[in-house]
């Protein structure tokens, strides 16, 4: 997103435009664990391809799209800006989603959350088992490629489950703040689970990093 206008004075335009030109490109984040760390639930080959090839492609394509968008902005070419929106949404979403996903997983994950997050899950879904069943069902039910999410509805002060198609980012398309994302693109599981998505979803609960999900919840409640 490019914030080049200031409500205070036109003199303020210079700094944001300058920073736009020298903006750091997006980079592929390091995984917080080894590729094989989530085995046997998600094997090393999947993790390596998913991170170093798929996520890397979103990052590279996002940088290219932003470069073109910057040129279109400079020229005042609104048609080009509009035509670049799908690429920005898809690759930007892919980068946002995967950056969250890697931290949502941990070799020391699994089990159930504790504290405030668990209280909220019980309050909003009745029980952890009920929540788990609902998020699994929503994720299994995604047609084609997409994501299942646990998000926080800030306006209503409650947890909510949602599905997003393709790489649509949760917050940018629904307004919900992402806490836990489950990638159900086939590249996330096919090498190990073939086309049996429910088996992958059953396994992924063993590596969910509840500390990360809880800290995301604490942050968005502030």
From TrEMBL:
<feature type="domain" description="Manganese/iron superoxide dismutase N-terminal">
    <location>
        <begin position="25"/>
        <end position="106"/>
    </location>
</feature>
<dbReference type="Pfam" id="PF00081">
    <property type="entry name" value="Sod_Fe_N"/>
</dbReference>
<comment type="function">
    <text>Destroys superoxide anion radicals which are normally produced within the cells and which are toxic to biological systems.</text>
</comment>
<dbReference type="InterPro" id="IPR036314">
    <property type="entry name" value="SOD_C_sf"/>
</dbReference>
<keyword id="KW-0944">Nitration</keyword>
<dbReference type="GO" id="GO:0005759">
    <property type="term" value="C:mitochondrial matrix"/>
</dbReference>
<feature type="binding site">
    <location>
        <position position="98"/>
    </location>
    <ligand>
        <name>Mn(2+)</name>
    </ligand>
</feature>
<keyword id="KW-0496">Mitochondrion</keyword>
<comment type="function">
    <text>Destroys radicals which are normally produced within the cells and which are toxic to biological systems.</text>
</comment>
<feature type="binding site">
    <location>
        <position position="50"/>
    </location>
    <ligand>
        <name>Mn(2+)</name>
    </ligand>
</feature>
<keyword id="KW-0464">Manganese</keyword>
<dbReference type="InterPro" id="IPR019831">
    <property type="entry name" value="Mn/Fe_SOD_N"/>
</dbReference>
<dbReference type="Pfam" id="PF02777">
    <property type="entry name" value="Sod_Fe_C"/>
</dbReference>
<dbReference type="InterPro" id="IPR001189">
    <property type="entry name" value="Mn/Fe_SOD"/>
</dbReference>
<feature type="binding site">
    <location>
        <position position="183"/>
    </location>
    <ligand>
        <name>Mn(2+)</name>
    </ligand>
</feature>
<comment type="subunit">
    <text>Homotetramer.</text>
</comment>
<dbReference type="InterPro" id="IPR019832">
    <property type="entry name" value="Mn/Fe_SOD_C"/>
</dbReference>
<dbReference type="GO" id="GO:0004784">
    <property type="term" value="F:superoxide dismutase activity"/>
</dbReference>
<feature type="binding site">
    <location>
        <position position="187"/>
    </location>
    <ligand>
        <name>Mn(2+)</name>
    </ligand>
</feature>
<keyword id="KW-0560">Oxidoreductase</keyword>
<dbReference type="InterPro" id="IPR050265">
    <property type="entry name" value="Fe/Mn_Superoxide_Dismutase"/>
</dbReference>
<dbReference type="GO" id="GO:0030145">
    <property type="term" value="F:manganese ion binding"/>
</dbReference>
<protein>
    <recommendedName>
        <fullName>Superoxide dismutase</fullName>
        <ecNumber>1.15.1.1</ecNumber>
    </recommendedName>
</protein>
<keyword id="KW-0479">Metal-binding</keyword>
<feature type="domain" description="Manganese/iron superoxide dismutase C-terminal">
    <location>
        <begin position="113"/>
        <end position="216"/>
    </location>
</feature>
<dbReference type="InterPro" id="IPR036324">
    <property type="entry name" value="Mn/Fe_SOD_N_sf"/>
</dbReference>
<comment type="similarity">
    <text>Belongs to the iron/manganese superoxide dismutase family.</text>
</comment>
<dbReference type="InterPro" id="IPR019833">
    <property type="entry name" value="Mn/Fe_SOD_BS"/>
</dbReference>
């Amino acid at each position: 997103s490019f914030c080049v206008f200031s409500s205070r004075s036109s003199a303020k335009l210079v700094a944001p435009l300058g920073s736009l030109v020298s903006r750091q490109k997006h980079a592929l984040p390091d995984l917080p664990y080894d590729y094989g760390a989530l085995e046997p639930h998600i094997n090393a080959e999947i993790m390596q391809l998913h991170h170093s090839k798929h996520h890397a492609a979103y990052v590279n394509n996002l940088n290219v799209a932003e470069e073109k968008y910057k040129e279109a902005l400079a020229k005042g070419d609104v048609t080009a800006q509009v035509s670049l929106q799908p690429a920005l949404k898809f690759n930007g979403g892919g980068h946002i989603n995967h950056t969250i996903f890697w931290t949502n997983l941990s070799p020391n994950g699994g089990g159930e959350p504790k504290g405030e997050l668990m209280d909220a899950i019980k309050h909003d879904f009745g029980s952890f088992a009920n929540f788990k069943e609902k998020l699994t069902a929503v994720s299994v039910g995604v047609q084609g490629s997409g994501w299942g999410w646990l998000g926080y509805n800030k306006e209503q002060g409650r947890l909510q489950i949602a599905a997003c198609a393709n790489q649509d980012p949760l917050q940018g398309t629904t307004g919900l703040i992402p806490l836990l994302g489950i990638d159900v693109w086939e590249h996330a599981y096919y090498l190990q689970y073939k086309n049996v998505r429910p088996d992958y979803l059953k396994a992924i609960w063993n590596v969910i990093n509840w500390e990360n999900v809880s800290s995301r919840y604490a942050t968005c409640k502030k």
